[in-house]
Amino acid sequence: MREAAGTRTATVMEAIRTRLASRALSAGDRLPSIRGFAGAMGVSPSTVVEAYDRLAAEGLIRARQGSGFYVANLAPPLALAEVGPRLDREIDPFWVSRQSLDADAETAKPGCGWLPADWMPNAALRRAMRRLARADDKVLSDYGATRGLTALRRLLARQFAGEGLDVGPDRILLTGSGTQAIDLVCRFLLRPGDTVMVDDPCYFNFRALLRAHQASVVGVPWTPGGPDIASFAELAAAHRPRLYITNSALHNPTGATPSAQVAHRVLNLAAEHDMAIVEDDIFADFEPEPSPRLAALDGLSRVIRIGSFSKTLSASVRCGYIAARGDWIEALIDLQVATSFGGASPVAAGLVHSALSDGSYRKHLEALRRRLARARRDMAGRLEALGVSPWLMPRGGFYLWCGLPEGCDAAAAARSALADDVVLAPGDVFSVSQTASGFMRFNVAQMGDPHVFTVLERSLRAAKACG
Amino acid sequence: MREAAGTRTATVMEAIRTRLASRALSAGDRLPSIRGFAGAMGVSPSTVVEAYDRLAAEGLIRARQGSGFYVANLAPPLALAEVGPRLDREIDPFWVSRQSLDADAETAKPGCGWLPADWMPNAALRRAMRRLARADDKVLSDYGATRGLTALRRLLARQFAGEGLDVGPDRILLTGSGTQAIDLVCRFLLRPGDTVMVDDPCYFNFRALLRAHQASVVGVPWTPGGPDIASFAELAAAHRPRLYITNSALHNPTGATPSAQVAHRVLNLAAEHDMAIVEDDIFADFEPEPSPRLAALDGLSRVIRIGSFSKTLSASVRCGYIAARGDWIEALIDLQVATSFGGASPVAAGLVHSALSDGSYRKHLEALRRRLARARRDMAGRLEALGVSPWLMPRGGFYLWCGLPEGCDAAAAARSALADDVVLAPGDVFSVSQTASGFMRFNVAQMGDPHVFTVLERSLRAAKACG
């Protein structure tokens, strides 16, 4: 009996916690009245009083003399990992990043989104660092210009021109990272409650980022040829999204590339419904040959191109970029000054420019593409042997988006693998509709260690048993 | 007559632009009806039609068949520099940062917030860079752990312990910069419309940052002994601010230090009104001896300590930190992963740690304090000679907050000086109440060039004439 009462109290407390996490209740808001909430929850008023008192003891709410209970100002208001439906808490968009970033050296990370350190052009980086150690005092000590290192923006402008995108260095803004570039654009274009369209599946951190902006997210079904155009049109009409965020070159997680026709239709629909588009080009350098790019077709009128150097040069040297309309760049500069007092560190931008200008970089990229093509083939074969089959064979990059054997739950497999020091990327972290529990994203460059396949096989069996 | 009509149209267009900038009108909102707005503006409906058509031609608004005019989604929604009252646009919190950051090498910057490059420990930085060029591949290529380089967090924890603040490395989070640290905290604690208290005057970028968060800002009058406690109590009671942002060690722009008594009272008022406090310690290393610190008194229960290495080590190597409650750090990590995919670059954190551990760093700080003490004395004397008198003589740092000669408008002087390639910092950019037009902040380390005083004298005369 006492236990039952305890359970009822816990249920009421959990109900309030959920409202706090979802911001249905925010700092300073009055909590539901004792009697009213008791009725709503089907418990006795004394149970609600007990629950409120315990939450007050935890500092989440405060009693105000004679006027009931209020949400405390210091109640963590934006615990991102807690926001959203219960199912979503089970498989959180932060799960893979937190596990991979904080993994120890022994842990294998086929679920992570980067190449092993020894696949990167470290010799060129070391040369760049020694060159920088001889640079002018100002380069080492001063804040840089608000747009970021001119030499690097010029280099990017030349590269874009080669891809048919004519944009002066003044319309390029360097940022602290590719993610920060998208974040800055979201801060500029979005207000809480605005709707944003993403691909389903999409890079899990798009979902995390959009939570931070309290945006409402709609997912457009993704096909081997890009977003499903019929659904895109329906969703755009129904939800009037302000923004569409996508990877057009090599899509994360599937590695698919939209056809020229699809790209063209996406742009027309965006124009018809007055949407902006963020084209995240972060995997572009892995393409065997450039694919039709939204930014190039559109000429940066409503498309914003962002990217970084984390995948092919270094994730430690943080530097990203935004290419966009001139008036938007001006506003984004103010926003970046206000929120970071500048973008990419001049030291970081200097290292990137120096390494990209290093004669060895192009050779590095070509070797990397060949090495990854082999790895995709080999790992696809070894995965097939476990009944894990790629949804498609990508033209480039290091991802394989794979269907698991019938009845295998990816989340269960990932949890079991983590116990054996292997970080996997279960499908639903990528899925707005939470319909990818039978899929998993594999990073073929992080599967060299045979331990990975031993653990994978074991986890799949475990997941099937429990599923 | 036609000109008059043109003027009236322009007036209507400007009125709409202001509503867009201030977000009184936002994406998708319907514009006021032709007839209604004509009445409100005292013009003919045809004038409003003309104005709306021109704004539509500019792409700011769109006509919808039969249902009037609507704000276009792509109308820049957050042009920060445009937000706020007209007066504020005249003297914008971005004015000093944009002018100083983008100034060419010839421009003198007594208005800027950093030391000349040749005052910084560049030799130590170069050594650090050569050491890093020999570091492990992972350091050069990998994303770091979510909290940032452990060695640097341990070093900070030891330093804090020395100042009477006991906090484990796990409660320290490295960020991309000091500004980014405050921004992250604001994202965690604030929602649009929340009230934040700052000092009046305060660092101008606090005002810019809080605009980006669409916070409503109240300024507490600042005295030579810290915030005016009576006003602090009144404002806290009247506006129930969620957060107070301050520099306690050496206040920017005045260089004043709160007394222990004031610090203690501020904490009690914050507790009484359930406010969080951000203590921006960025100038702490310039203190001759440590002053009473809010974070140490409070033990990081409601105080969040932030800082960076931009003022004493390098502004080019971007790295800041947050020390706060453990549960807050966890939420801030998620937020930083979502919005930057990590904080300080491992390369940057490595450089900072290596340079701070360099035997020469302590000597550099001591020499820097002596050099600045001399510079404060000398420049104060030379400013007095122009009738420019320091509000107080700071214990440390490089700022002098000075009253201008009677009838001199700081903004006018700053604009005139800019024409002569000298960037000044007019008082009102620091003032929420816009009551500092007779003040200016000087950076004594940036006034070595005699040209500065020639231009300053000329600008003051010009400002007086025009004032």
Keywords:
homodimer; 467 residues; alpha/beta; Arc Repressor Mutant, subunit A; Aspartate Aminotransferase, domain 1; Aspartate Aminotransferase, domain 2; 3 domains; 8-stranded mixed β-sheet; 4-stranded antiparallel β-sheet; 18 helices; 45% helix
3D architecture notes:
Chains A, B: GO terms for molecular function: DNA binding; DNA-binding transcription factor activity; pyridoxal phosphate binding; transaminase activity. Chains A, B: In the C-terminal section; belongs to the class-I pyridoxal-phosphate-dependent aminotransferase family. Chains A, B: This is PLP-dependent aminotransferase family protein. Two copies of one chain form a homodimer. The first copy, chain A, contains 18 helices and 14 strands. In chain A, a hairpin with a 2-residue loop joins strand 5 and strand 6. About 3% of the residues of chain A have low confidence. Helices cover 45% and strands 13% of the residues of chain A. Chain A is an alpha/beta fold. In chain A, the strands form three sheets. Chain A has an eight-stranded mixed sheet with strand order 3-10-9-8-7-4-5-6, with helices on both faces. A four-stranded antiparallel sheet of chain A has the order 11-12-14-13. Chain A folds into three domains: 70 residues, Orthogonal Bundle (Arc Repressor Mutant, subunit A), CATH 1.10.10; 137 residues, Alpha-Beta Complex (Aspartate Aminotransferase, domain 1); 240 residues, Aspartate Aminotransferase, domain 2 (3-Layer(aba) Sandwich). Chains A and B meet through helix 5, helix 6, helix 7, helix 9 and helix 10 of A and helix 5, helix 6, helix 7, helix 9 and helix 10 of B.
